[in-house]
Design a protein that fits this description.
With about 260 residues, the chain is an alpha+beta fold. It has a single domain, classed as Alpha-Beta Plaits. Helices cover about 50% and strands about 20% of the residues. Strands 1, 2, 3, 4, 5, 6, 7 and 8 form an 8-stranded mixed sheet that branches. Helix 4 crosses helix 8 and helix 7 packs antiparallel against helix 8.
Length: about 260
């Protein structure tokens, strides 16, 4: 177990605050407060809207908006800073098999629909969609409180599972597409924002940090339609939510 994991909750918060003294926290907090809060939708509405988008995509070839522009803008304002983030890694299960079994046009619809719906869910829970990597979507949550960020990430992940099961798959089945399943890994930590190049507007920006790597590793251990979270995330979520998780692997992650 690392020294960080041996700290109690108060010590962890104190440790994060000491790291953050180098960051203009006031500017970040003001930016987050000014950011337009996404709509909070009930489950039935989220499912209905998802089904409508998927149906349009299947029958009319309509591509809908799910970009990473908002994340890109945020990151460019904080290049070379370390920020506390809850990182989410969402992977589409069995994408290799799907690619081998289905025609190219169906594969394109499946991958695009999955990625866009996951990105929309992240934004609806006031997170940022960082990027699409093959058959995976990476997002992150940052708030005026890391506790709020962790709770939003968990709610988002739970919503993704519901959307897949009750929103996307029923529509896909009606049009002779296979069911889709996802695996989700979530971790928390300090992450460095890096710009690859001197152009402040066009050079690629990304996030580097242990949480990015750990979220991917945790996701890889998950089963289809399962959410796995790191111990640091578990300590930050609401006690009621904690009860839904059980220990999966010693001091590595917890499963939902």
């Amino acid at each position: 177990m690392s020294k960080k994991n041996e700290l109690n909750d108060d010590e962890q918060l104190e440790d994060s605050n000491s790291i953050n003294t180098k960051i203009d926290q006031t500017a970040i907090i003001n930016m987050l407060l000014q950011r337009k809060e996404k709509r909070t939708l009930d489950s039935d509405t989220m499912i209905s809207e998802s089904q409508e988008r998927i149906l349009d995509s299947l029958t009319k070839g309509i591509e809908y908006e799910a970009t990473v522009d908002e994340s890109d803008l945020f990151l460019r304002k904080h290049v070379s800073e370390k920020l506390p983030m809850v990182v989410m890694y969402v992977d589409l299960v069995g994408s290799t098999d799907i690619t081998l079994r289905l025609p190219e046009e169906k594969v394109a619809v499946i991958i695009s629909s999955f990625a866009q719906e996951m990105a929309i869910s992240i934004k609806q829970h006031n997170g940022f969609a960082l990027k699409f990597v093959g058959d995976a979507v990476i997002g992150y949550f940052i708030d005026v409180s890391t506790l709020l960020a962790a709770d939003k990430a968990i709610e988002c992940a739970k919503n993704m599972i519901v959307i897949m099961e009750k929103g996307i798959n029923p529509i896909l089945n009606q049009h002779d597409y296979p069911d889709l399943y996802i695996k989700i890994g979530i971790d928390f930590g300090m992450n460095m924002i890096v710009r690859y190049g001197s152009d402040k507007k066009k050079s690629h920006v990304d996030i580097l940090g242990p949480a990015m790597n750990m979220a991917a590793k945790i996701q890889n251990m998950a089963k289809p339609q399962q959410i796995l979270i790191g111990a640091d995330v578990y300590k930050k979520i609401h006690p009621t939510t904690q009860k839904n998780f059980k220990k999966k692997m010693s001091q590595v992650q917890k499963g939902y």
